[in-house]
Amino acid sequence: MTAPRIPNLFGVPELKEKILFTILCLAVYRAGAHIATPGVNVQVLSDFVRNQGAQTLFGVYDMFVGGGFSRATVLALGIMPYISASIMFQLAGAVFPVVDKLQKDEEGRKKITQWTRYVTIVLAAFQSWGFAIFTESLQGAVVNPGWGFRMITAITLTTGAVFVMWLGEQITERGIGNGMSLLIFFSIMEGMIPGLFQTFEFLRTNVLSVLGLIVLLAVMVAVIAGVIAITVAARRIPIQIPRKVMGRGRIREGQKTFIPIRINSAGVMPIIFAQSIIIVPGTLATFSNVPWLRQVADTFAPQTLAYYISYSLLIIFFTYFYTSIIFNPVDLAENLKKQGGFIPGVKPGAATADYIDDVLSRVTLPGSLFLTAVALLPFFIYQYFNVPFYFGGTALLIVVGVALDTVIQIQQHLHLRHYDDFMKQGRVRFRGRRRFM
User: Fold this and answer.
1) Does any domain span residue 199?
2) How many domains is the chain partitioned into structurally?
3) Whole-angstrom Cα distance, residue 189 to residue 185?
4) Contact at 8 Å (CB) between 165 and 171?
5) One domain for residues 189 and 241
6) pLDDT mean values, one per 10 residues, the chain (437 residues)
7) Where would you tag: which of 53, 269, 390, 432 has the fewest CB atoms within 10 A of its CB?
8) 294, exposed or middle or buried, with CB in 10 Å at 0-12, 13-18, 19+?
């Protein structure tokens, strides 16, 4: 599937309006991400987050909100409360049958969406209050600490999180779609761009050699190509739909189709889950003077063998865990049986579910290994190429995935437009007379 040409994007009035509306919303979001929260010494907070590095809770959170956390902006929480609430309900569907039933019904999905909004507000309130207390714990970070500062910060950040949630929904409904993902996409890109400029500054000052830069660019291109290939790659399971008698001797011809089993069905979620666990020792040790806790944090510090092994095992585990949640072979086999379809050579029902589960397990293994390699790549690039940013991991998978989804959304709008034009302008002749479709 080829990418749409740029001139075609603004040649369709409806698509042009959607793109311009999306750009306007993103501009508002990034403008709000630079308005500081009242009463915070931004420089002190920024220095603390930068000194802690990217492998603590603060650094990871700051990456998803485009540096808004370290700058203490009014949109410091970003879209993360909404993402956390969405993940909670997604996991709840695998545990509670009531939630799973609601997810399969249109009205039920509307209820879950509404509940997700309420939980987002609650999470944002707790996180903003925690942010205020955390900021007060830093020496010189707050001008006038106390209950007044905490209340103002909690109200400001909670309102900002609700506004970001509303902005993402507007992009999804009135823009080109994928509103929440696009907000994260541009937040991550804003954090990457300064690092790229700083890399060329390293080249100018001979901190980074020309050969090193060429090798780095080659590695980056190869990794991006690999991520794209794995993201779109899928194992096709052939499906046969038998012929059916329609009445009056008419027989509908059987159809041949397939079920795509993606190699990376879990997306970026395994890395996020693994990263959330692996950074816990370092985050706790930051605010603790317990000797054994600091020793554990040093043992599992980044760029150590224990860190690499535990991080890799966590990613592989969560890849299988999350894939089992979002992909149910039993439901797929039942739906296939109701439609009269079957996999050639496999009995319908339980045998089909077992076959799909076996294929899914074998396909998930290379996907989990690839996620592990992408997650560990930033440490090696940072260590051996001496670049001022982490390339790879969660950020790269999100950027590539959102970019591909956005291209697909735009192509769907273009194809729909061409289909509408055909329906309006198409003409068919019947027995010498012209009839309009």
Assistant:
1) no
2) 2
3) 6
4) no
5) no
6) 53 81 90 86 81 63 76 86 85 81 84 91 90 84 87 93 92 85 83 74 76 80 85 86 59 69 84 78 69 78 82 90 85 83 85 90 90 82 65 75 82 67 48 42
7) 432
8) middle
